[in-house]
Amino acid sequence: MADKFVYCFGRGSAEGNADMKNLLGGKGANLAEMTNLGVPVPAGFTISTEVCKLYYDNNRQYPGHLWDEVLENLKKVETAMGHKFGDQNNPLLVSVRSGARISMPGMMDTVLNLGLNDDTIQGVIKQSGNERFAYDSYRRFVQMYGDVVLGVGHDKFEKLLEAKKESRQAKSDTDLDARALKELVKEYKQLVAKETGSQFPDDPFEQLRKAIGAVFESWDTERAVTYRKIHNIPGHWGTAVNVQSMVFGNLGNDSGTGVAFTRDPSNGNKIFFGEYLLNAQGEDVVAGTRTPQPINKAQKKDNGGVSLEESMPEVYNELVGVYQNLEKHYKEMQDIEFTIQQGTLYLLQTRTGKRTAASAVKIAVDMVKEGLIDKKTAIMRVSPAQLDQLLHPTIDPKASVKAVAKGLPASPGAAVGRVVFSAEHAVLEAEMGHAVILVRNETSPEDIAGMYAAKGILTARGGMTSHAAVVARGMGKCCVAGCGAIRVSEEEKIFTVGDQVVKEGDFITLNGTTGQVILGKVALVQPELSGDFGILMEWVDEFKTLKVRTNADLPADAAIARKFGAEGIGLCRTEHMFFGEERLPIVQQMILADNKEARLEALAKLLPFQRGDFYGIFKAMAGLPVTIRHLDPPLHEFLPNREELIEKITEIKVTLKYISDEKEINRLKSQLHEHENLLHKVQSLHEFNPMLGHRGCRLGITYPEIYDMQTQAIIEAACQLAQEGQVVEPEIMIPLVGTVEELKTTKAAAIKVAESVMAKQGIKIKYSIGTMIEVPRAALTADAIAKEAEFFSFGTNDLTQMTFGFSRDDAGVFLPGYVEKGLLPEDPFVALDQVGVGLLVQMAVAKGRAVNPALKIGICGEHGGEPSSVEFCHRSGLNYVSCSPYRVPIARLAAAQARIKEKASVKQELD
Amino acid sequence: MADKFVYCFGRGSAEGNADMKNLLGGKGANLAEMTNLGVPVPAGFTISTEVCKLYYDNNRQYPGHLWDEVLENLKKVETAMGHKFGDQNNPLLVSVRSGARISMPGMMDTVLNLGLNDDTIQGVIKQSGNERFAYDSYRRFVQMYGDVVLGVGHDKFEKLLEAKKESRQAKSDTDLDARALKELVKEYKQLVAKETGSQFPDDPFEQLRKAIGAVFESWDTERAVTYRKIHNIPGHWGTAVNVQSMVFGNLGNDSGTGVAFTRDPSNGNKIFFGEYLLNAQGEDVVAGTRTPQPINKAQKKDNGGVSLEESMPEVYNELVGVYQNLEKHYKEMQDIEFTIQQGTLYLLQTRTGKRTAASAVKIAVDMVKEGLIDKKTAIMRVSPAQLDQLLHPTIDPKASVKAVAKGLPASPGAAVGRVVFSAEHAVLEAEMGHAVILVRNETSPEDIAGMYAAKGILTARGGMTSHAAVVARGMGKCCVAGCGAIRVSEEEKIFTVGDQVVKEGDFITLNGTTGQVILGKVALVQPELSGDFGILMEWVDEFKTLKVRTNADLPADAAIARKFGAEGIGLCRTEHMFFGEERLPIVQQMILADNKEARLEALAKLLPFQRGDFYGIFKAMAGLPVTIRHLDPPLHEFLPNREELIEKITEIKVTLKYISDEKEINRLKSQLHEHENLLHKVQSLHEFNPMLGHRGCRLGITYPEIYDMQTQAIIEAACQLAQEGQVVEPEIMIPLVGTVEELKTTKAAAIKVAESVMAKQGIKIKYSIGTMIEVPRAALTADAIAKEAEFFSFGTNDLTQMTFGFSRDDAGVFLPGYVEKGLLPEDPFVALDQVGVGLLVQMAVAKGRAVNPALKIGICGEHGGEPSSVEFCHRSGLNYVSCSPYRVPIARLAAAQARIKEKASVKQELD
């Protein structure tokens, strides 16, 4: 243990640096770093974390010479700043703050303006020429100190403040004059004396000693201990204490304060960008009571005013030097805060600046060009989640927006359009060239055409992986789902939200990125993929090893995904093809067939449609692998709604009791008969839990002819393409396999059909057969299954449903509450649950590869486009992820980042 | 490899024995064993399996001296039997059969009467004095040999036989006289010559050589290879060939044949029990053309006749010696076949005799008393599955029964009663003292009272773990479920099966053990638990280490289970208590409550009911642990049916269009309003997949007040009992936990309530809090969960549903087909899927115990009473299984057997 406890910084040199976070805490180390860089930082010193350790190890005793060291360093600060602590003419005021290795917000409040008393205030009044400011600072100091150091409740001070305002008929704090504030200081001190039994300490040195002690004590409060427990922070780390001189930007017109970015955060342009106010404190900028001025002439165009560049050219030049220095040092765009005290520039803080997605991309690419950072660093600088902004229209940031309701941000982007309540209507309106928003209680596969026609989708029910959400994301279409605040009456063609009624044809705007629902039209900004985006994505591909495919059911979607860099199709859902206007009746005919012959007849009619679909997809993806999943949903999804049939039948039955027109009676009777027959079939296919019902390969085993037709269509389409000289690798994927025997049976059937088609056509194409791993049992028995499968594709939507026992259509009732109460860190349908579901994934990978090292493994659940899940997939050794077209770039970036992180951690281990 | 290939047996000594199965095959070794025991067995010899191996290893060549060895041994057989092979005066006839290590039925047919030709037949005619018999034997031999050895299709012979019968106007084979049969032999031989191009071999030695060759060849047929693949029998095992002299029981009145059991198989009494026929062959006994006679005087009471004891006292006495010898040797009740050829007794076969459950128990207990076997062996001798027969009424075996339909054997036993179609009606009829069978499409929790009132339950839909099945088993009530052949119209109060219509009030009989549905009344036999049963169960408890608890929701069930030896309650489902007539309205009031206050008000009314329930259960189980599960099902289960509400509303709406009576209009309008409000709530609680919905602890987290009320009721009831001086250990079980946070939250709430109740009452009781493991994620993260749980209870019903992704209410559509097609070895809702679901169980046990070695672990799914699953639970280290009351003895026996098997296998490993 060192015998040095206090580390000074100021006037261009510091005893610490950024690498000494363990000893000086994060804040202390950074203040030292800035100082060493030659950045003008208000002088101060840091009492090391070792003191905290010694304090607790030695029965709450400080090391003997600590106070001497503090006094010694205080002297250095006085020299550096040209003020004297406790001096009544030229007083030095300081702030006292805690600072652990990593930031622990809320652990201990800051004490500002320490050093004030009835004597030193005179010096402040004299130097500032502003008595009110001086007493306001004094009153704030007593309140803060009383609360934080002496433990007198904040609310007790506030009560006195309120009483004072009342007695002076002051509306806000700022209406209180210097006299009132002076009285308040007195009253505050009386309060402290009453509450603590001791006088408020007037001696600045006593103030300082006690404040330092309070910080160290705060390390052991229940609040802090709990916080550390939650965040796994060891108690023996301890906290440092930072004592820093106060500077004021409101000491006259040679003073001021401002904030600036080293580059323009809205577009990333390499322009120094910021605002400032003369004779003001930081809070004045924030409060908005005065309009800040542009920092330099370049920004003056619109808003006039006098820039800092003009008002204080020397200070401005110094600031330019500082920001360039900082950006070069941190190799990152910085967000800085500065104060000018009587012509002297001080930097109070520098940190990484927040930015829009577009500027993040531009800055990263520019910095590589400038030689500031390498490609890897550039890739790590762009957040994949943020990238979404670049790919969809967004609400114009300049528009003023008032949302009337908020649902789940189910599919990003924004959309404006007239409200429609049915898929048919959506199609009609779209054909007339109108932009429409489809509003439904929930969507079902029958609504696909309408969803495709609409600009956006709004549903009252359903979660992040409800039908509406999944399909909308697949289409890259804006969607707000599960918006419980709206009541939709599809019958009356209205929806209400609170008292407001929205009728069909009214305009609304949706923000699928935030979940906001806005009445009326709001201006949108169209996405623009800059050249920088392309450059960054090229670099991404240099690093990533995980392939990125897309989930696409239509040639158009496949083409978009390919444009976004998709390396194949990981999931083509054949069922979406069954809902076309010409097809649904044939599908229903197939389902209602009483015997195999009738079913085969209907299937023969479907074959050319399916072949055409696959041909289109294959053509769009020529040269790349395409995974086609055999029919998955239960058959009743293709039949009319059960409740509606019951309603219709009851309606006819009751009507028949009352009418006498024979012709009408006959008409109704024959209708009734038809409905009843249909209902009988619907009832017989009805399931209590369709999620766990007769679907996936269970259908293919009960009705092998359905899968046979699909295999035939796939292989015929691939052969056709081969004849045209284009190569495609169809991968036939069997859904919902839970036992190896299911795969064996369906695989044998598929091979038989495929070989027969190829023999007939005299063409050999490469194809493979694999399975979804989406039933927990498949993951548990992956070793057996891998012997029969050429590839695995994790269907993590269903796997999540079954592993948690959550129905994604129903979980909306309790899942948001779970996340809110901390029962789950995140919605497991959004970010893969790595602990539970992830364990099954890892088991399946290990078991599968153990018996079949050549096994190709991917994921085609919604998680394939979510960054943390993509990283998990990379770590778990998957070959590819597959996601909706608009998430392909996000997945690519996440994959590259995962690879870079992994390499870094391997390097760290080797170092 | 030995240079001895043929092993002789006969005349009291054999070269082989029972331990030489690998070399001689099962049949050969057993024939040798019997011979060595001094049992008179027709002499013969076995050609070893090594010959088979050599044959295939050496390009289908036999070892050089094989035939010499065969001839040598044939001589020994001639000597032993006093006949000569191929001799025309005193011919020896033999049978040739295959015989592998383990029986492979259907691999190769037997050739009987080998050695017959136009010369030797004369000897047979002379010795038997029965020309027709001789030619019938001859014609059978040619047919059998032609088919099996020469490969001429069986049907071709049959055609000739049919033609012969037609030409002679014979109705059956027996109507053909010796001449016709003689002609047939000739025609058969012509057929063979035509089909094979060679004459039928008349030389007995050629016949024998070819027959032996055919047996060895049969080892390599496609049929045999497939069979071995399916049953994992290595190809290199090979088969042996048994050549044995034929004996005939129809050579006059000093000959005969019979079958006998060493004890009475119907009741286990120690009485030699059997039947015989003079001057007859085995097939005459089977064909039933003549009535067999009792074997001894003791059996003569009813059916007169002359017993073997009387007709051939010496032979009978010899037979008695033989059977006693056999039973003593095999230490098991034997089922023997014998033939008497001209005064000489031959044993043809001995094997373990089949028996009823009652006799299995009696024989096992008796044999221990007789010192024949030890207790362990006795326990292993009774099949747990069979035990079920002892605990329920069964259909009188004497009754002639014709089933009209067959459903799933959902709950064992039999029941007779009048058909009713509603639970209310069942209750009314039962109150009037009528026995009723409740017939429904499917049952729901609202039907509980009616199910309780009925003698048996029949449903058209649902599987082995449908509501009807589970509840019926819990009540020990006969149930046939998922009987697809019946169409139930609850409205019209009829069900139809084919053309037959069964009306309310008609009698039917159900056999829940087989799934049979029988029209009318059938006589039943009531179960009787003998003293032997009690003795066996006492021994069982000496061996088993796995505890057996029961699933019981009512004090009466708990009492029955305790009588059956239950060591506590492993699952008390509180929801069944919510359906009582007085309670359901309060439960609905609670669910429909718009706010917490209203909900609390309803819960306060439920509290005394629940407390009373628990008090009753605790009292019945005083001294034992009782696990009570907090509310599990989704709330909509307690509300009216959605479809019915829709129907009612539509009905009123349409009616309102047509009527004009104002009073009626007002009445209907107010009704409509009420229904619509209710429907609104029902719709809002409606779930697409209720299995995966808002249920279990998810409810307890959304509405903590429900679980709080239940905890309060549990602890108050336990305190009350404690005050009365009785001890109970309540175990509070949280259902459907998937994350440790869920358990933490609900556990903290339960502790708070429990401590507050105990503080209030001034009583301390011991209670514990644990969780179901029924969600796959709970098993996967059992290490985290075990830190918070005092016990785990595997809910293998739900765990099976989620691990397979099978809804047990819907799987009936495809699951039977899966088992039929071999995609699954068994219904996983009946026998635990050890490969998949079992892996999760074992992971959870290992992970749970790793962090919490004191963790108590049980199972409370339906599998807890299924023998193979109980064995799995024992092997997996569980502390207890819990099952429905009537399965407690079965589980106890299975647990003891599991323990004994385990010890045996450990011993084997150590040996």
Write a concise keyword list for the protein shown above.
34 helices; homodimer; elongated; eight-stranded parallel β-barrel; 34 strands; 17% strand; alpha/beta; eight-stranded mixed beta sheet
Figure out the total of helices of chain A: 34
Separation of the first and last Cα atoms of chain A: 26 Å
* Structural class assignment of chain A: alpha/beta
- Count interface residues per chain for the largest interface: A-B, 58 and 58 residues
Mean pLDDT of chain A comes to: 91
Proportion of residues in helical segments of chain A: 40-55%
Instruction: Provide the low-confidence segments of chain A as ranges.
Output: none
What is the oligomeric state here? homodimer
Shape of chain A: elongated
> Into which percentage range does the β-strand content of chain A fall?
15-25%
Largest sheet of chain A: 8 strands, mixed
User: Gyration radius of chain A, to the nearest Å?
Assistant: 35 Å
